[in-house]
Amino acid sequence: MTKATSHLASRPVALAHRGFSGGTSHALENSMAAFRAAAELGYRWVETDVHATVEGVLVAFHDTTLDRTSDGAGTIAHLPWEVVARARIAGHEPIPRLEELLTQLPQVCVNIDVKSAGAVTPLIECIERCGAHDRVRIASFSDARRRAVLAGLTRPVRSSPGQSRTIALWLAAHLPVLGSPLVARLAHGIDAVQIPERQGRLRVLTPRLLRALHGAGLDVHVWTVNERADMERLLDLGVDGLITDRADVLKDVLVERGEWG
């Protein structure tokens, strides 16, 4: 099977955004409870962002600060781990270290968004220490951060491009003549492109982009999709994966379509 046709032979990838974080029963995003809930539903992939404390402890947490989702306060990069460790998400759940997620749920793969430059070295060290190369995908808004992580690892890992590479892929895909060779060149070193369906008024996911990325052997994952009708429509369009807060709804949709597992 060639890389250019591999996406056609696999079932859609379901990714639980910050764990099973949607609905009234699983609102504790980025907690081990949310990650375990996703794993218990049968999810093979979860998504998380990472930040590092002042001494380099890597936490699986979305925000730069503790304030929005926990009873703690302050910028994670400026706080010691002992302070972050005392914070509780929604007053109940501790903030997990990425290493906890990788070691406590060894059957789960993790899509990791590198949110800060300070997280680069701790992330490299964590992946190496856990031997998790086959279980992670490295993503980042910053292509520089993404490339820095990849360069520091001893083995290749999956990767999704940052904003600048994604924009270049989008523009190349819409060129009338030279698009396909340029997309193929830009596809080097990545396995999936993870995008929103729209960004403001711009339609990011277009049929032409989907064809071009598939032609270059890349999978296309769309975030963050929480409504059943949107899930069904995007899957019918041919996307290869969906990132969702509603892990329960997406599982139901994929089971009904015979595409779960």
Tags for this model:
261 residues; alpha/beta; TIM Barrel; 2 domains; 9-stranded mixed beta sheet; two-stranded antiparallel sheet; 10 helices; 13 strands; globular; disordered N terminus
Give a brief rundown of this model.
The chain is an alpha/beta fold. The protein has ten helices and 13 strands.
What can you see in these coordinates?
- This protein has 261 residues and is α/β, with parallel strands linked by helices.
- It has two domains: 12-158 and 229-245, TIM Barrel (Alpha-Beta Barrel), CATH 3.20.20; 160-223.
- It contains ten helices and 13 strands.
- It has helices at 32-41, 81-84, 98-104, 120-130, 143-152, 163-173, 179-186, 207-215, 228-237, 247-256, and strands at residues 13-17, 45-52, 58-60, 88-89, 93-94, 109-114, 136-139, 158-159, 192-196, 198-199, 202-203, 219-223, 241-244.
- Strands 1, 2, 3, 6, 7, 8, 9, 12 and 13 form a nine-stranded mixed β-sheet that branches.
- Helix 3 runs parallel beside helix 4 (120-130), helix 4 packs parallel to helix 5 (143-152) and helix 6 packs antiparallel against helix 7 (179-186).
- The longest helix is centred in the middle third of the chain and has 11 residues, at 120-130.
- The radius of gyration is 18 Å and the shape is globular.
- It starts with 12 loop residues before the first strand and ends in a 5-residue tail after the last helix.
- The relative contact order is 0.15.
